[in-house]
Amino acid sequence: MSGETGFRIFTQITRPDPEVVELFRELPVCNIDDCMNKLAAMHSEIKPLNKVKLLGTAVTVRAPIGDNLMFHAAISFAQAGDVIVVAGGGCTERALCGENMMQIARQKGIRGFVVDGTVRDSAALDTFDDFNIFARGIMPNASYKGLGPGEMNVPIAVGNQVVFPGDIIVGDEDGVIAVRPEQARAIAVEAKKLKEKEEANLQLILKGESDRSWVQKALEERGCRFYNCSWDELM
Fold first, then answer.
1. CA distances (Å), 56 to each of 21, 33, 38, 84, 228, in order?
2. What pLDDT, on the 0 to 100 scale, is given for residue 3?
3. Residue 229 located in a structural domain
4. How confident is the model at residue 148, as a pLDDT?
5. What is the mean pLDDT of each run of 10 residues along the chain (235 residues)?
């Protein structure tokens, strides 16, 4: 097996129950991340390219820089409800996919792509209401096919986060995150509670009834000193 590392495809993954995936349908990525110790969101450079909510099961790809052959393989193997997540080395000089790949994926019911790299034919994304891409940007230079090896359905690193095959991928206007299936129910429950709490707090803010006394208390507890004068009077 060691000689195959770097050029291999695992055709089977363990997908979570669709009902578990759907628990995240109405949950903001911000709330999910807050319930994962505020450490789980992918790098801010990996941005949504339209406003469609991204939700599905991860099919992972490790692609050589500037080469998308393994990305094409993932589209062939992926199923409806999947999201293809591509570790492309963060390269912004070659687009790893274009509209043809997007449309083939959409026809199969694939929900979208997360690409640690760039894409092209971005205007097509404005017409989609069922598909989104998160990527580092747009680049018209196309990729090559078959210059190097690659892997599919292995653990990968994308946007400073580890993604495993079968992870639940959630993306919205604030960013994208991967949730381990065995932790998903508990995280979804906590994120739902947090969402409801924040919605209630927002209503108090809009009514002018927000309690800000905690700020003063937190400063005092941490030893912050207050001076009843301007800074230059102490000079």
1. 7, 17, 21, 9, 55
2. 55
3. no
4. 73
5. 79 97 99 98 98 99 95 98 98 97 99 98 98 98 87 98 99 99 99 98 97 96 95 86
Q: Which two tokens stand for residue 232?
A: 């230059």
Give the whole-angstrom CA distance, residue 38 versus residue 234: 39
Q: CB 107: neighbour CB atoms within 10 A?
A: 10
Q: Are 128 and 51 in contact (CB under 8 A)?
A: no
Tokens encoding 71: 């990305």
Q: Among 164, 166, 168, 198, which residue's Cα sits nearest to residue 24?
A: 168
Whether the full predicted model's pTM is greater than 0.90, yes or no, is: yes
Residue 188 lies in a domain: yes
Q: Of how many residues is the chain composed?
A: 235
Q: What is the pLDDT of residue 55?
A: 99
Q: For residue 47, which phi and psi values (nearest 5 degrees)?
A: -115, 155
Tokens 């193997």 belong to which residue? 77
Domain contains 160: yes
Give a yes or no: residue 22 inside a domain: yes
Query: Could you give the angle at the alpha carbon of 205 between the alpha carbons of 199 and 208, nearest 5°?
Result: 150
Question: Residue 110's domain spans which residues?
Answer: 2-193
Which residues sit opposite 165 in a β-bridge?
none
